[in-house]
Known about the structure:
Layout: H1 8-23, E1 39-43, E2 49-58, H2 63-82, E3 86-97
Helix pairs in contact: 1-2
Amino acid sequence: xxxxxxxxxxxxxxxxxxxxxxxxxxxxxxxxxxxxxxxxxxxxxxxxxxxxxxxxxxxxxxxxxxxxxxxxxxxxxxxxxxxxxxxxxxxxxxxxxxxxxxxx
Length: 104
């Protein structure tokens, strides 16, 4: 029949959209779009994916729980939309930030 290849930038876009849902920000948020550069994709020899995400956690949030919700959202969305096996979602917390009142 043929092959279907899903490019890494497609996986990054899916992960970004999952990240937007966890942070509860609109997809069009220009400031938040900078987060895309903090998402990378690795491929295993079996063509499974490992997604690496660097992020900042809102001050006052439980860092572990917030990170786990990011990991779960990204893994589920990528698996569902691409049928790829997500071996891991690695989260590196770089900073904490104050939530702005306009986003609430």
